[in-house]
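Q: Could you fold this chain for me?
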Amino acid sequence: MMGNQNEGIYVTLSELLKFGYVPKHFSIRPRGTVLSKLSGRHLSGARGRGMDFSEMKQYVQGDDTRNIDWKATRRTGKPYVRVYNEERDRNVWLVVSQMNSMFFGSTERMKSVSAAHTAALFAFKALETGDRVGAVIYNNDEKIKFFKASSSKNSVVQIMTEIERQNHRLKASNDNNRKVNLGEALKTLSALAKHDDLVVLIGDGRAMDEESAKQITRINAHNDVIGVLVYDPMEEEMVKSSSLFFTDGVDTIDVDSRDGIFIEKFRTRLEQRRDEFRQLSRKNALPVLSITTAEPVLDQLYEQLSLVSGRG
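A: Sure. Below is the predicted structure, expressed as structure tokens.
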């Protein structure tokens, strides 16, 4: 399945920090169109960031006529235009799942590792563009961890350190399926993300519930929200075996994936989760990216959010 014992199973801080030094030729500025990889989805445009009004000046040839201020023009008898400056920074909030359900991977890496890679790439891209980075990190066992938005690299290192810590608490024998109160966390976040912030939801969708969806709708009313759905190819089509082993390199569990009841429950839960995401996406015109554990996250972000094709 995987090379070195922990490669792709657990993430390290040094691994995450390396993403700060790789070329990131993709955009997290929500002006263009974001392609959703979910089946049945269409192209969804994210709302553009706001513009700060700078000054009023008399129109000269070459100015954008769309910015003519007609009230000032009528009042003075001369054409005046409003001058805007694009906002230079904003808050980028990463909402990252390290739940037990994320500790699964059939090929290259665990979903939890792909989620960590995604968070690191978004965080360092935000710093490159002059934005501030905040985070909400959650699992099944602990109180949800908040990080205030900051433009400091040290703050991002703290976020990555917490992701690493929660990631290393995952193991195959974990059977705690306690409901994560993500809705309450998003309620707090909605008070912090006031206007034109970017909220990136990174996970497999299993923490979503009615309250979470309600808060996402509220946040999306005045901010940009992108969903990142992390999945494993085996979730699309389970390998049928009388003895299918899942391991974290230490503990192992054995599953009979031929069992009809197991297969039916698996497919039902997967389809239910997809439907919930589709409904939430359509309701809010919410762009959703799909990240598979079978390919490097960086390549997938190039493909789905790219400014240019490939790594060049």
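A (continued): The CA atoms of residues 299 and 310 lie 8 Å apart.
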